[in-house]
Design a protein that fits this description.
Pfam families: Abhydrolase_6. It is built from 10 helices and 8 strands. The N and C termini lie far apart (59 Å). α3 packs across α4 and α4 packs parallel to α8. It is of the alpha/beta class. It is globular.
Length: 312
């Protein structure tokens, strides 16, 4: 317990002190690349299937105060979305969003949601120009990243996305927006992580390389999401799956809240799942592998439905 308590301070201290003390270590088969997106250079982690073209490409989008390494957790070999996806025949690209990673110097304040959507679409176009993407793009996102991919899906008019899988993001905060704790603050710890036992040993130590400062634009836009989402939701056409962790504390996920959220996406097929034995940072916990497998299962369903539609 002493080791955990000591390392518990590390993510918040890292965020407050700007850059992590060392680069994020990579799982086998994962490599670093950079993408040029509308004049912005985004750092990314990439994993591709060996000796075959990908069946589709998963774009992983991290939340506030994290980085692309969130989807390549190092505390246990089963955590990495990137290695799992490649073994299943999919390319997985985890992006450092605008204001994170390489672009933090160029965009120290980050970007508003609408601009992040433009940047994301530019990054997808650049990636498709340089790499095989298979059947297309499937967006998988966590927390604030969910807001970004939902906005991007609403703006997606030319090349429809295969689908979206969003965890840790809803439409009603569990507390009043003006009372939400600052990311990385001691008060936010229980919201973002939850009980120690939900995570493998050394999770909090290894997350030193994953945690990052939260750009000011994101902090500014947090209270506005409940008002922004209804317009975004009605324009989405791609299938969407929302996942709330059993111990999610940032968002309401009771029956009424889930019904309201589903009812907003009038032009899309919507599924809402709850994942047992998981905290908000689901992709860093013991539940990561089972959550990721369910996400790939949803991708399989989207591909099957697309095939059925195309063959009619």
């Amino acid at each position: 317990m002493t080791v955990i308590k000591s390392s518990l301070r590390t993510p918040a201290e890292t965020a407050a002190g700007a850059k992590p003390s060392r680069p994020h270590p990579l799982s086998p088969g994962v490599r670093r690349i950079a993408l040029s997106a509308a004049g912005i250079t985004l750092s990314c982690l990439l994993s591709e299937p060996e000796h075959t073209t990908p069946r589709a490409t998963v774009i992983a989008v991290h939340g506030s105060g994290m980085s692309a390494g969130y989807f390549d957790g190092q505390a246990h070999p089963d955590l990495s979305l990137l290695t799992l996806g490649a073994r299943l025949g999919f390319t997985v690209l985890s992006l450092d969003r605008p204001g994170y990673g390489h672009s933090a110097t160029q965009l120290p304040d980050g970007q508003p949601l609408a601009e992040q959507s433009v940047t994301l679409h530019a990054a997808l176009a650049e990636f498709a120009h340089r790499h095989e993407v298979g059947a297309g793009f499937f967006l998988l996102a966590h927390s604030f990243g969910g807001k970004v991919v939902l906005t991007a899906a609403a703006d997606d008019v030319d090349a429809p996305l295969i689908g979206l899988d969003v965890s840790g993001c809803g439409h009603r905060y569990a507390v009043e927006p003006d009372r939400l704790p600052e990311p990385h603050s001691r008060a936010a710890w229980g919201f973002s992580w939850g009980a120690f036992g939900l995570y493998p040993p050394n999770t909090f130590l290894s997350s030193r390389s994953v945690v990052a400062p939260t750009p000011s634009w994101e902090r500014r836009e947090v209270p506005t999401w409940p008002d922004v989402l209804p317009d975004v939701a009605r324009r989405i056409r791609a299938p969407v799956r929302f996942t709330f962790a059993e111990h999610e504390r940032w968002w309401r996920h009771d029956q009424q809240a889930v019904a309201e959220l589903s009812g907003m996406l009038t032009g899309s097929r919507v599924r809402v799942d709850r994942h047992p034995d998981a905290g908000h940072n689901i992709s860093l916990g013991w539940a990561a592998r089972s959550y990721h497998l369910r996400a790939f299962g949803f991708l399989e369903e989207c591909l099957a439905r697309r095939g059925m539609t195309d063959s009619r």
